[in-house]
Amino acid sequence: MPLLEPKPEVLRPGAARTPSPDRVPDARATGTPEPLRGELTALLGPKKVLWTVSDLVKYASDASPYRFVPQVVVVPEDIDDISAILSYAHGKGREVVFRAAGTSLNGQAQGEDILVDVRHHWAGIEVLDDGARARIRPGTTVMRANATLARYGRLLGPDPASAIACTIGGVVANNASGMTAGTTRNSYRTVASLTFVLPSGTVVDTADPAADELLAHAEPQLCEGLLALKAEIEADAELTARIRAKYEIKNTNGYRLDAFLDGSTPVQILRGLMVGSEGTFGFISEVVFDTLPLDRKVSSALLFFPSLTAAAAAVPRFNEAGAIAVELMDGNTLRASVSVQGVPADWAELPKETAALLVEFRAPDEPGQEAYERAAAAVAEGLDLVVPVASVTNEFTREAKVISGYWKARKAFVTAVGGSRPSGTTLITEDFAVPPSLLADACEALLRLQAEHGFDAAVAGHAAHGNLHFLLAFDAAKPSDVDRYAAFMDDFCRLTVERFDGSLKAEHATGRNIAPFLELEWGPKATELMWRTKQVIDPDGVLAPRIVLDRDPKAHLRGLKTIPEVELIADPCIECGFCEPTCPSRDLTTTPRQRIVLRREMMRQPGGSPVETGLLDAYGYEAVDTCAGDSTCKLACPVGIDTGAMMKDFRHQRHSPREERIAALTARNFKAVEASARLAVAAADRIGDRLLETVTGLARKAVRPDLVPEWLPEIPGAAPRKLPRTSRVGASAVYYPACVNRIFGGPEGHRGPSLPQAVVAVSARAGKPVWIPEDVAGTCCSTIWHSKGYDEGNVVMANRIVEAAWGWTAGGKLPLVVDASSCTLGIAHEVVPYLTEDNRELHRELTVVDSLVWAADELLPELTILRKTGSAVLHPTCSMQHLGDVEQLRTVAEACAEEVVVPDDAGCCAFAGDRGMLHKELTASATAKEAAEVNSREYDAYLSANRMCEIGMDRATGRTYHSVLMELERATRP
C-alpha cells in the first residue's frame, strides 16, 4: 500500500443513523452471486460485467420514486452482445431490463435481475438526405442529436424537458413527447424505421424491403400471432373506435394498440408496437427519424394570470392563434423556480394562487413571425392578466436570452420543485392528459383532490395538449404517508378516467406506478389484448416484467425509495440525472448522481455494516479521486447542486493535519515552488520522457497516486525565464499571467511569441496597453489548493492574490486581465469563501476580466485582421462555461479563421490542473468522443485558452493546441 494512502474510514458517515427499511441487505455486500457473475464474465468478458456492491447500488436508482437493486449490470458493446445476453437469460430463466439515461420517472429503467446499460457504447448520429432524416443510436441524447441537426436547419419532433440527458432509446421506448410534440410530432408519428432485437435474439430492420420475409422465416409463430390479433381487433368495430379515440389526446399508457390498425404486415405492426413498449418487446439498437424544420423566428411571452383556472381557460385561444407551445405553471412551480439561475428573485413573492402561461410561436421567416405576433397580441388584449411582481412584463419578446430564461424555468419544473421539497421525502411525478377543452375543469378538480389528501399543489404541463404534470412529496419510510399516497392515487385515477375520459400517462409511459391502473383506463377487453400481445412477442417473459403489465393492485407501492439526508450541498438532489452527460468521469467510474446515490445508501446502512464498508472501500477512487472537480454538474443541475464541491470537501476530510500543513507551506513559499517547477520542466527536456515516466511511476506507487503527478510526454518545455517588459504608465489594464503560463511554455515547435508576449503585443496594437506587475511571481489564483481540498493553503493564497490584485489595480480602478480561464474563475469567484472579511471588501472592488473577454470586447474592435488561417477547431473549457465566455472564444476565433468549428461532443477535458497527470485514465475517458470528432478531419489550427486544457487535448488528439490569443496576435501582426 502507498505510504500516504487515505483511509476509507475517514468518509464513514458519523451521524447516528436509524437503518432504513429499504437498505441493501448484508447478504448483498459481496456483489453479484455465483454462478451468475462467472457465467456472464465468461460470456461477455470481465470489462462488460459490473458486479461489486458499489456497481449494483449506483444503478439501483433513477429519476423515479422507485429503487430496485439488480443482481448484475452488464455493458454490451454491440448487437452480438445483446443477443448473447438474451440467449443466456432464456436458457437460465432470468429477466432482463434495459437502461440508458435513467431519466424515466416511473421506474421502467430499473430491474431486479440482469440490468443492461445501453448508454455506454451506443451513441452516434448519421445525418441522411441533407438533414431530412437522421439515423441515431439509442445512447445519444436528444440535445446531442439536435445539435448536429441544427446545422441542417432541422430538429427532432420529440422535445422532452429532459433533452439534456434523456436518450433516443428511452424517448422512443416511452414515446416521450414534450413541449411541442403533442400527438403529431412524437416518436410514433416521426420514426421512419427501427432496428431492434427481439427477446428471442432475432434482429429486425424495418427499413429492409425483405424484413417481413426474413421475420416470417425466423419467427413464424410471432407473425401468425400478430396477424391474428390484428384481425380480431379490426373485426370489433366498437373496440377499433375506442382505440382511435384514445389516441386523439396524448396517451402512453399501455401498448400502442393502434399499431395493429396502422400496420398491414407483422414488421409494420412491430414498428408501431416498439414505440412506447418500455423495453418489454425488445432492444432498439437504431432509429431513423423523419426530422422537422427548425423554424428560427421565435416570439415568446410569459403571461401571468390570477388563477390556474383562468390560465387554463386561455389556452384554446392561443392554440387557435397557431402557438406551437402553450405551457402552464402554477404559483408553487413559479416560486420554486427561483432556485434556477437567471429566474427573477421576486418570483419568490408571487401569490400562491398565481399561474402563468409560457406561449411560443415559431415561424420560418419574418412575415410569418409578424403575422403570429399580431394574432398573439389580439388574444392577449382580451385576457385578464396580472402584474403581481415588478419583473412581470406580460409582453411577447424576440430576445433569445429572455426566451431561454423562460424555458429554463419551465423545464426545471420537476427538479426545481422537487429540490425544494422537505428533506427526506420521496418525489413522485404524475402525468396525465384530458381533452384540451376540459383543461380548466381538470385543474380545479386536481387542486381539490390534492387538498383533500394533504398534498401541496405543484402543477405544470403542456397545456396546449391538455397534458398536466404534478408532484407529490411524502416520506416512503412512514407507512401512514404511503397509505396517503395510495389513497390519492386511487381517487386520482378514477377522477381522470371516469370524469374526464383522460389518459393516466400522457408522455411518461406506464411504468411501475400506473401498471395497476391500466385496466381502469382501457377496460378488460383492450387490457387483455395487451397481455396477449406480450405473450406473442415475449412468451417466456424475459424482458422487463411488471413494468407495463402487472396484476398486483398494489404494485405501485412496491420498491418506493427512502431519501435519507446527506451532505447539505447534495440533499436537494432528486436523482434526475441531468448532470450525467456533462460529467467527465461518466464513462470511467461514477457520475454526480451516482456519487450522491452511493452516499445515500451509506446513510441507509447501520454503522459498520458490510455493505457500508464495501461502498466506502470503492468510494475513494470511484467517486472522490476521479471527480474532475470542474463543477459542470452544477451548470446542468436545475437547482445548482455542485457535486464537485462535495468531492473537494471529501478530499479535505481525507487529508491528515500534516498534509494540510505541507500544502499551506507550499502556498506561503510559492515563489520558490514556482521557480523550482520551472527549472524542473526545463531540466526535463534534457532528461527524456521515458526516464521521467519511470521515476514518477515509482514515486506514485510509493507515496500515493493522488499526490504525485505522472510525467506525460505532452508536457511542454519551460516558459521564458522573464516576462515581457511593460509600463504601468498609460496602461489600460493590469495583465496577470497565470502561474501555469509562467512555468510552462508554448506548444512544441511554436516559433512565435509566448502567450504573455502575445497578449502584451496585441493589446498594444489595439491602443490598450497592459501592465504586468513586477511581483506576480509567487502568486496564484489558488485553484491548485482549492481543487485538492487543501483549505489551509487555499486560505493563504486566496488572500494573497486578492490583496496583491487590489494593489496592482489601484484599488480596482483598472481591470485585472487573466490569461487562463480557470484562473479567471478562481480569482473572480472561487477564492471568495476563503477570504477574510476585509479582503472580501477588497475583492468586491476588483474587476476580473478573462483574456477572451478582453480580446473580444476591447481589442477586436480596434484591430485590423491582416491574415486568416483556413480552419480552426475550438475546445471551450469548463471554466469558460462557468464564466459565460464561450461565445467570446468563438468571436476571437472567427476573426482569425475562415471556418470555426466547436465539436458537438466538446466537454470538460478533465485535465483539471494536474488531475490529468494524477489520473490520466480520467482525461482519456473524458475526451474520447471529442477527440474522435476532432480527428475525423484536418484543421489548420487547434485553439483554446487554458494551457493545461490544451495539454490535455494534445494528449487526447495527438494534435497541438494553443491559445486563441496567440492566434489573434499572428492574425494582426504587421
Give the helices and strands, then pairings.
Elements (H helix, E strand, L loop, with lengths): L35 H9 L4 E2 L2 H6 L13 E3 L4 H14 L3 E4 L14 E4 L7 E4 L4 E4 L5 H9 L3 E2 L12 H7 L12 H4 E7 L5 E3 L5 H8 L1 H15 L2 H10 L12 H4 L3 H9 L8 E8 L1 E2 L3 E9 L2 H14 L3 E6 H6 L18 E9 L2 H16 L18 H12 L1 H7 L6 E8 L5 H14 L6 E4 L4 E8 L4 H21 L11 H4 L3 H20 L54 H13 L5 H16 L6 H5 L6 H12 L2 H12 L1 H18 L1 H14 L30 E4 L2 H5 L11 H11 L4 E2 L11 H4 L4 H18 L7 E3 L2 H10 L6 H8 L3 E3 H9 L9 E6 L3 H6 L2 H11 E5 L13 H4 L1 H15 L6 E4 L2 H11 L3 E3 H9 L2
Parallel strand pairs: 2-4, 3-4, 18-19, 18-20, 20-21, 22-23, 22-24, 24-25
Antiparallel strand pairs: 1-2, 5-6, 6-10, 7-11, 8-9, 8-10, 12-14, 13-14, 13-16, 15-17, 16-17
Helical coverage, percent range: 40-55%
Report the major sheet. 6 strands, antiparallel
SS field, number of helical segments: 40
DSSP strand tally: 25
Give Rg in angstroms.
Answer: 29 Å
What's the overall geometry?
A: globular
The N- to C-terminal Cα distance equals 59 Å
The whole-number mean of residue pLDDT values reads 93
**Strand arrangement across the biggest beta sheet:** 12-14-13-16-17-15
Poorly predicted ranges (pLDDT <50, ≥5 residues)? none
Strand percentage, roughly? Answer: 5-15%
Which structural class do you get from the secondary structure elements?
alpha/beta
